[in-house]
Amino acid sequence: MKNILRLVRRGGFFFTMFCLFINSNSLHAQWVQTNRPTEVNVLSLAVSGTEVFAGTKSGVYFSNDGGASWGLIGNQTGLYYTNVNTLAVNGTNLFAGTEGGVFVSASIAGSWSSESNWTWAGSGLTTDSVKALVFNGPNLFAGTWGGGVFLSTNNGTSWTAVNSGLSNMYVSTLTVMGSNLFAGTWGGGVFLSTNNGTNWTTDNLGLGNMNVSCLVVKGASLLAGTGGGIFLSNNTGISWASVNSDLNVISFTVSGSNIYAGTANSGVFLSTDSGATWSGVNSGLTNLCVDALLASGQNIFAGTIGGGAFISSNSNTNWVSTGIMTPVVKTLSASDMYLFAGTIGGGIFRSADNGTGWTAVNSGLMTPSGEANSVTAIAIKGSNVFAGTLQGIFLSTNNGAGWKMLDAGGWFQIGVQSLALSGNNLFIGSNNAGMYRSTDNGTNWIAVNSGLPSNATIYSLAVSINEAGDTTIYAGTQFSGVFLSTNNGTTWNAINNGLPSDPIYALAVSGTYLFVGTWNYGAFRSTNNGASWSSVNNGLTSLNVKTLAVNGSNVFAGTIGLGGVFLSTNYGQSWTVVNSGLPSSVNVQTLVTNDTYLFMGLATPGSLSKSQNESCTLSGIANSGVWRRRLSEMNTAVKDGVKNVPLIFALQQNYPNPFNPATTISFTLPSRSYVLLKVFDLIGREITTIFSEEMSAGTYSKRWNADNMSSGIYFYRLQAGTFTETKKLILLK
């Protein structure tokens, strides 16, 4: 029975086949990093020694080389709310205020890296939206949106509200002047506490705008940035004087005698006379919405909304863009035209040139608060692209140019873990809510959970179709193993004999073989449709298998930790590492291919320099994003380092078959030949010529897209020299 792989992993949709070629230069083959999807929204900045931190909509980045390169702290581990409004550092602890409370990350050997994990530290906070964090001695204060001010005396382990006298609970900024604590509010002006928040007072005399976005201390002076300009107080906020009435100021920083003000739409302004006068300093600043400013040594950092981070020397007024901040790429999917990358906190990026350039395509793909979504799964059907997010599912009917949320009675708020397409059926594997199915492109949905555990989390989905058209759906769960349905999800049966109870992150089908990738236990294989399983880990140096991809007998496994990417050419009996060009420690999130490349979504330390011939060397700290390797370099006929040229001409059965709308045809050549590959209809009329060219000996794959053809039986014929062979393929729409 011939099976067809449609989806193999959590957050990844794979419908294109690996095209594998013999290449005489395969000994020099290696992975290279594409130009990366880029985080462009910098909400907060902080510094500890020479290490600079940037809070963004996709997590917290760090740089220890003056902003030349950036890496994600902890690669998001534990930071499950990535909209980082504010940052604060105290000794070995870094705190992040988010829309989901406060998180803390401890340094490792005095610094932070991708290995530094995050822990939620919000116990006692009655409001999740944290806009400001500040230390006053050992006391940590949090300003929240709607909950006022909270105090922690134990590094965030617990919090207590300190709001006596604070008549406005919408706190946008906090700052400290000696023993005085100031809170800027939205609509209530500035409040002062002289006893660590036990009591608050306010005067606001002369403060002409009560919407205070930011506060900063310069000597004995306090400055307030508002929507109506800048106000200055020299008596701890008792009275105020306007020093600018034109600017909408949303950020401040002080460096020596200089005060910098970031605005919502006019860039950065500088005062060298304690705020009496201001002048624009925007040369080189290509984005004028400056949400965060930071002085670090001789450098000034500016975090913008939409333009990323910039840096300027304190001795001049020119800005240059800092190094790239790359969100974690959680899922990849490829169509004939585009490569799509779904990221954590950064939405979706699209490339039309195999990753050389990326464009954010997030119009309509937003959270209720207006932020770019975290995308966990992507599925493609023609020009329809489905995006599964932590807050529901979205549909684009124009290849990502615009999105709309698919709202079916409120269930859309369920977090999506996986997606799969089978004919007209679209399946969602959810977070703690089981399985859903739609037969009308997401307009209507029904739960299909009979036989599944209650409130199941479905990490992975796979669909196989045999040549008779019978469909089988597989679902990998968090703690309950694998389930099978032969009736489009109406009922499910557990198939777990021999499997561990750990999460099933990946599923794949190859011929009559079924594979799963697990956490801690590696890969397992079933030869009887899941009736029993056996471990297949010979050669796998990492047993945390996050993603699987298949081409015939060739299986690729992406792992977390000291593993990388592995290849098996014998249905999992043994594995060979294929990591040339990758860092030594990689976290592979997803794998997908088009006709030319194998693409990988990666979260790992390190940065990359590429020469024109695509060789690469590692330095620095920022190797997240998308990597690629030419399929022509992936010589699956290599055994013990010796290349085996095919001995005979052969035409393989197309894969998948039946298919919709594209399929892959593979063949082998034992000698250099002129190759002609054509498709005919049922009565023998020629439909198209897929390929016509002279080729060297080797193994090849060619893809046929039948998007404009009607359902039916077709034949494909290979002519190579005197060799001719014809096989049948079935198009089912």
SSE blueprint:
Blueprint: E1 32-33, E2 42-48, E3 51-56, E4 59-63, E5 71-72, E6 84-90, E7 93-98, E8 101-106, E9 118-120, E10 130-136, E11 139-144, E12 148-152, E13 160-161, E14 171-177, E15 180-185, E16 189-193, E17 212-218, E18 221-226, E19 229-233, E20 241-244, E21 249-255, E22 258-263, E23 268-271, E24 279-280, E25 290-296, E26 299-304, E27 309-313, E28 320-321, E29 329-334, E30 339-343, E31 348-351, E32 359-360, E33 375-381, E34 384-389, E35 392-396, E36 404-405, E37 416-422, E38 425-430, E39 435-438, E40 446-447, E41 458-465, E42 471-477, E43 482-485, E44 493-494, E45 504-510, E46 513-518, E47 523-526, E48 534-535, E49 545-551, E50 554-561, E51 565-568, E52 576-577, E53 586-593, E54 597-603, E55 607-610, E56 616-619, E57 625-630, E58 638-639, E59 642-643, E60 650-651, E61 662-669, E62 673-680, E63 686-695, E64 698-705, E65 712-720, E66 723-731
Antiparallel strand pairs: 1-57, 2-3, 3-4, 4-5, 6-7, 7-8, 8-9, 10-11, 11-12, 12-13, 14-15, 15-16, 17-18, 18-19, 19-20, 21-22, 22-23, 23-24, 25-26, 26-27, 27-28, 29-30, 30-31, 31-32, 33-34, 34-35, 35-36, 37-38, 38-39, 39-40, 41-42, 42-43, 43-44, 45-46, 46-47, 47-48, 49-50, 50-51, 50-53, 51-52, ...
